[in-house]
Amino acid sequence: MKDTARHQGMRNLLARQLSERPQYPISDEKVLQAIRTIPRHLFLDSIFEERAYQDIAFPIGADQTISRPHTVAFQTQLLEVQPGQKVLEIGTGSGYQAAVLVLLKVELYTIERQQELFKKTKLLLERMGYMPKKMIFGDGYKGYIEQAPYDRILVTAGAPEVPMELLVQLKIGGRLVIPIGKGEQIMTVFTRLSANEFNKEEYGTFGFVPMLENVQSKIR
């Protein structure tokens, strides 16, 4: 698949639709520009190309999905990242969210527990020029202590409860964005106020694949 002027037009339309949503509109221009820039259809199987710029999630193999564009944009907006910040992503998946964060010029560490996806996505991100600082094959529940603390942590799978290992890997003032719950999840933001104090904010309900654990972490 190639990236064409037609694809660019569809990305522009998608960004406008995300900015005009009645609920949780995307107002961060940097996030909208990433949506306009990144060719989402290249992260999907070719059979989904015609619908790649609709606000739909699609299967990507290994019982995983690529999130809806609004979900990706909304989580990114909630992160409030700045260039140069150290960010940990739990659940690389297709690599689309990682590409958005790389385009926003953060220092990204991303973890994927499905080896099939890890290998496929690493090759794709390298080829497209959106390679994170490091990709890790391993258990996202444990975070990545080797590079902690982080300015921001993003979880792209539904957790029944917030993993404490992730909270303690945040810097003071750092933000964790995570969907919490079984079935549908509540998008939740934790901000670390001090060593033992966190502020919690809740947003709307979203649907994610479940966050899994108990994989021996490896660095590739």
From TrEMBL:
GO terms for biological process: methylation; protein repair. GO terms for molecular function: protein-L-isoaspartate (D-aspartate) O-methyltransferase activity. PROSITE patterns: PCMT. Keywords: Cytoplasm, Methyltransferase, S-adenosyl-L-methionine, Transferase. One of its GO terms (cellular component) is cytoplasm. Its EC number is 2.1.1.77. It catalyses: [protein]-L-isoaspartate + S-adenosyl-L-methionine = [protein]-L-isoaspartate alpha-methyl ester + S-adenosyl-L-homocysteine. The active site is at S67. Pfam families: PCMT. It is found in: Cytoplasm. InterPro entries: PCMT, SAM-dependent_MTases_sf. It comes from the Bacteria. Belongs to the methyltransferase superfamily. L-isoaspartyl/D-aspartyl protein methyltransferase family. Catalyzes the methyl esterification of L-isoaspartyl residues in peptides and proteins that result from spontaneous decomposition of normal L-aspartyl and L-asparaginyl residues. It plays a role in the repair and/or degradation of damaged proteins. This is Protein-L-isoaspartate O-methyltransferase. It comes from Capnocytophaga granulosa.
